[in-house]
Amino acid sequence: MRAALVTIDIADGVATVTLDRPERHNALIPELLEDLRWAIAEARKHDVFALVLAGAGQSFSTGGDIGGFLASCETSGGIGAYAERIVGLLNAAILDLLDFPFPVVARLNGPVTGGSIGLVLAGDIVLMSEAAFLQSYYVEVGFAPDGGWTAMLPERIGPARAVAIQALNRRIEAPEALALGLASEVVAEDALDAAVSRTIETLRTKERHSLSATRRLVWDEARRAAIAARLEAEKDTFCALVGRPDVANRMRAFVDRR
After folding, report:
1. Are 109 and 221 in contact (CB under 8 A)?
2. 142 touches 250 (CB < 8 A)
3. pLDDT the model gives residue 2
4. Phi, psi dihedral angles at 206 (to 5 degrees)
5. How far apart are CA 242 and CA 222, in angstroms?
6. d(CA 208, CA 48)
7. Fewer CB within 10 Å, N side or C side of the chain?
8. What does each C-alpha distance from 240 to 83, 102, 164, 237, 254 come to in angstroms?
9. What is the CATH number of the domain that holds 100?
């Protein structure tokens, strides 16, 4: 099954959801996030014990599509309305993943930048290719962080380290991601699918009710509510900053460099 920008395959108790905009490195736009939310909801309708989240092509996802933000400057609603929509949808998709009743396995085949990190932080088992990395880029274009860079990352790696990584726009390569606990396993590029299969087969041997209970208790109402509030604060700050003239100039310069 597929929506326009996301595919979903359900087989042998596993839902594989793939971001499918490879010509743009699966960069996030509202339509892709709407399709992702549809796919997660579709997966919940089936008798599965795991969800695998992947990206087609060379990247997992390069975050918000800067071209979409620039184009929104010329629309009647403007960039503020576009930001409200896209970050709101991203937050909703992250919460959808946290609400999924069984383990979420993230397959990182390549770059994970900007807000797409939230889709990774909402996962439980992160399998990372040696070619993959994490990077924020917000201080380059003048955006406020979204996607959990402030709402979820500090709890994982510590507040000071989370600030430093973003302030310096420092790239987190796969070995460091493993050392920080952001990745569960790092493998060679050609071994990534085997690692996913091995993980799924291990999960298949486990008791389903225990898998579900563990995830439900970890991502309980209190923890989810705290994350939701922080994600909302990210959105509010993002929308407050994005309309400044220097942000538009930085976005154009960023696109030109690419």
Report:
1. no
2. yes
3. 67
4. -90, 160
5. 30
6. 9
7. C
8. 10, 36, 22, 5, 20
9. 3.90.226.10
